[in-house]
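The authors assume throughout that readers already know how a fold can be written as discrete tokens. For illustration, here is how one protein appears when written out as sequence plus structure tokens:
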Amino acid sequence: MEQVKLAHFGEYSENPEVIFSTNGRFHLIGEHSWFCKDKTLSMAVNLPVYVAVSPRDDSSVKFYFHQLSESKRANISSLKFRKEDKWANAVKAMIYGYTSGGFDVKGMNITIYSDILPSAGFGITTAIKVATTYAIRELFDLRCSEAQILQVIERGNKLFLNTDNYNADNYAAIYAKEGTVILTDHAGPSYELIPFDFSDKVILLTDAKVPRINVWNEDSVRQPENVLLLGELKDRKNYIYGGWQYEENPTEVNEVLSVVNEEMRRRLLCIMKEHSYILEAQKSLMKGEFGGFANAVNHSHIGMRDLYDLSCPEIDWILKRLQEINPNLEDSRNPTSCGRITGKGFGRVAYTILNKNDIDEFKAKLNEYERIFGFKAICYEVKPAGGVHIVK
């Protein structure tokens, strides 16, 4: 905390009046199917972002990102998206979310402090947005409910940044609790906290450092006609978590998806399978059974790799080496470890959950990875963490 205060004072010659912190996060399963009102399983992790603010006497806004040693500035009355402002656009978007909703926001000095940079993934940009939103509400004592906070974030994302507003991102950053994962139901929208208590396991986030190059346009899956096709295959079941599942009859599925080409059919099938993996993971976590959860995660990655075309050889290699460590040869349906690509895909980040005793062997594999592929992977050991909070 002293470092955050010193960073703010060093830039503005004054102490911050309010400091909020939000943790980073990653998605375990389902981040590529939210647009068809599906579900996403996420985990906030102890990669904190701090936002410190102090008021100004004018309408100017000054931004400072300590670890980047970058400063930006804007004016409340003329906020504009500027490509060169990069991370500062996320902060401006949240200010716009307030002003466009009729809230009285004045000038301020803002400091961002995060040892993990937004380019790494891990939900750092969302953490910046959420911590900024709560810090502004506290600084100006705004009468803004939790529901209105979500509207502020949505306006900033959609109207200022012209990007998707992803409920699973926001819920993980706001509502997560230590020792849990968060299941977002985009049909609600609503969320549920599920215990994640496997004391013999370790969670590792691996930045594989693979340049993210999109090999196809994911927006093509989100076309209304594809969403309608998936809607035809939703089967209402009261006894299923969330009240529905996808049609399991292969003949019915093939008939409905016969109107799309083979590539699109595979991707839509992957979305359908993702739903079943989330249900399997949720059921296993509620029972405290790691094997069933891990089985769902591993199958989800296979779908991302073979059906959705979202993975890359480097991450596939890392996860293959993971499965070679301490395999459960007697029961392949009850694995002792799991892993999956996470985030936007087409490279960069994978998560692995494995036995504590297997960490050294896994990290040795990462050294081998560097010799083979030429990328030096960075590995972060993390734990399930809580959501946004004020820092006293």
